[in-house]
Design brief:
heterotrimer, A mainly alpha, B mainly alpha, C alpha/beta, A: mainly alpha, two-stranded antiparallel ribbon, 11 helices, disordered C terminus, C: alpha/beta, six-stranded mixed sheet, four-stranded antiparallel sheet, 40% helix, globular, binds adenosine-5'-triphosphate, binds magnesium ion, ABC_transp_permease (chain A), cell membrane (chain A), amino-acid transport (chain A), Branched-chain amino acid ABC transporter permease (chain A)
Chain lengths: 299, 333, 260
Amino acid sequence: MTFWDSLIYDLFPLMWSGMITGCLYALGALGLVMIFKCSKVVNFSHGNVAGLTAFLVYGLSSGVLMSLSWGAAVLVAMLAAVAIAFLIYSIISPLVFESDLTSTIATLGFGLIAQGVTLLMFGADIVALDLPIPRFAFSVLGLLVTGYDLTVLAVAIVTIGALFIVIDYTKLGIAFRAISENPFAAEVCGLNLKSVHYFAWITAAILGVIGALLIVPTTFLSVTTVATFMLQAFAAAVIGGFASLPGALVGGVLIGVLMNLFTFYVSPEYSSTFLLGVILLALNIFPNGILQNVGGSRV
Amino acid sequence: MSEAPVSDQATHMSPDRSAMARLSGSITPGVTAGILVAVLMFMPYLLGGSWTFTLGLCFANSIGVLAVSLLVRYGGEVSIGHTFFTALGAYSVGVLDTRYGISLWASVPLALCLGVTLGLLFAWPSRNLHGIYLAVTTLALALAVPEMINNFDALTGGYEGLYVATPFIPGASMGLQRYYVALAMLVIVCFAVARLRLSRQGMALLLAKTHPAAADAFGTRRVWARISIMGISGGIGALCGATLAFSGSTVSPGGFTFWQAIFLLVGSVVSFYGLSLPRVLIGGAFVTLVPQLLSSSGAWIPVFYGLALLGMILLGHYMPRIRKAMARKSETA
Amino acid sequence: MMDQQTHALRGEGIALSFGGIKVLKGLDVEFRAGEITGLIGPNGAGKTSLFNCLTGAYSPQEGTISYAGEPLNGLPPAARAAKGIVRSFQHVALCPDLTVRENVMMGIARNGTAGWFSAFLPLTKGIREREEMARAADAALADLGLPDVGDKFPGELPPGMQRLVEIARAVVGKPSVLMLDEPAAGLNNSETRDLTAVLRKLASTDLVMVVVEHDMDLVMSICDRIYVLNFGEFVAVGSPGEVRTNDDVVRIYLGSDDDE
Ligand SMILES: Nc1ncnc2c1ncn2[C@@H]1O[C@H](COP(=O)(O)OP(=O)(O)OP(=O)(O)O)[C@@H](O)[C@H]1O
Ligand SMILES: [Mg+2]
């Protein structure tokens, strides 16, 4: 009986909340994978730039910079994120075609700058940034489901659905797929590598902002919150094979659930070490991502 | 994934040929290093105590920068997790000193052994990872470090850290010891790395980096190359940590954060992945001095590091082109 | 004659395919000691792939490979190198960070016994070993007509010379099987003539030498036997005279000329 009790009172809620956070990791991971798939760069500035934009939303809606409505603040922050992504890619694009590793190191530089700018504009204080959503909660089969959970789930599903539709059906999306498969052939066929790269970088930035805004209510906002969150996204991307969008999705949910189970059942103090172990294990067992054998890495 | 190793840029820009030049009769780089060392020997008598202390830290950090650059030059790989190894070395010294009162005589060899061993242990599961995949894995390694330090607080002293006070040479001035030990360590490590360039192992590593298939065909297995270079780089990283602990006198988790790992990489990029004494000193000085000079305005530190990193990378990219363009212009003129 | 039979590099039924594309279709080869064997065929015929199978860079899906009666299947390239099976590369694979002399030294570095202490410390053993290797490398370079380039870097040499350095690296270790992949590509006429002389000089009764080459004059003049490969299959095997007059061979070479 106690087994069932623990199953219902511990395991299911842990898996549920893990899945919710996992969706957010997946949003972050999808951005990383989009950029990696076409330009072969790992964008280490992803987390810090997303963190900066989350702070912008806070600054613009709380009166620190301006007193806009939440929606307007998000819109401005999104535009800022797009502009930053555009700027970053413009600066490193000559490197991208030379060495993927050098350009990856360059993104570390942008990450440092974004972090410094956040510190300069907003200081090292911790602030709260909530979502304007109705607060309610109900329980299904002993599982407590909150309005926040449903919001995250809905936004994640809509965003990821939209992303896949864009990639599958729009011209840019098809070009993105072609270039990811074979950049040389695609360029010979007249596709413009750079415009596709811009598309990937900008889409990734938008995904990053959405992920950051959704994750912040569970904790608080500080200079490192979002960057730390993105590290789980990195792990998710690695598990998914770093070049597979569905892999990133599955990897995100898997990391979310695994981390929750590990912190609860084993130890909350070794989560990064656990993450390291998971990454090493995944890279050895599934060098091309977990979906490689299932045949799902189509996109 | 493209095979272009990161060092291409650096190697082609200004080949590090000190070892080579010595071999072919010209001794300029050796002389440069000799003069530099001679000048550094007298620095404590010209500078105040605090600058002497800072210079000691520069030397220690130079060793760390060298460890990262070595991995780039000989392995073609980038690490953003070398704080793992520096922490290992620093806590070897710190723990032996504070718990058992044992000085560097024993703790430095221990640090070296631990660094090499854990470098090998990390290299084995990651032996098939290259480029970006390995970089991300080392990132995870760097993140795990502070957590491990804080969880082994019985040994490591947790947030408080440890204070290293046992002298290396009993009786001599502690301030001068902290300086000269660091200088000696740096010179020894640089010398050993210069020797490596001439050894069959070093040459095999270089060939394996640029043409793994050719190295394979002549008897150097890729896995051997990867594991060896990680062991060497880990060992040197641990020596950096050991030196930092002694010269910096304190060992605390703050010195081994994820950011510190990135700063080591920045130092390596700033010195153009150089392995010679002057080059690594530039990298080490950068890593040490920037946070000190900007300490009153902490927020500028990451900005400055970021700009320096980008600046150097872009310089590495555009310099050869500009030079070529200028050469062409002067030809036509 | 007996010696030739035993010290031969043999492949039986070597089949290799990449993702369903059959690159080698069950090849039987016997490269004998004391002979220079030519391996010719149009671009993409599978010559380099056969080399890769024999040296262990690729593992063929089917077939057995043996040298002097000893099976080689499953041995990594490094282990085959230890048995004296070495090769040169079609695309020059010299390390730009090493001097020419050091690149050649890599051909015998595997025989070194100096350990890691010698790698980092100036111990006599390592220094002496390096001097010996350097001497052997200089001798090999001199044999190939490159006496003065030891201290240069490969990037400072013209492509033809780089190719000779690549060959020097292969021969410096006194190999028992020497496989050269297009040694004359990029060489001018006089360099090719020198190369021809060098290859003749290298040939000895216990050396298995295989040369992949597009330069027909070179192949016809130095080879004792020639294998002609097309689309992963042998269309002819025989002496230069036999191959030259073989109808299939003529058709392949003329045919490919027509296509172009
Ligand atoms: N690693 C590989 N993956 C996929 N296909 C390969 C690989 N290596 C060789 N091939 C294919 O095998 C075929 C034979 O190639 P190979 O290099 O052996 O030809 P070759 O006879 O050496 O030609 P060339 O004279 O141009 O050097 C080619 O169609 C090539 O595309
Ligand atoms: Mg070929």
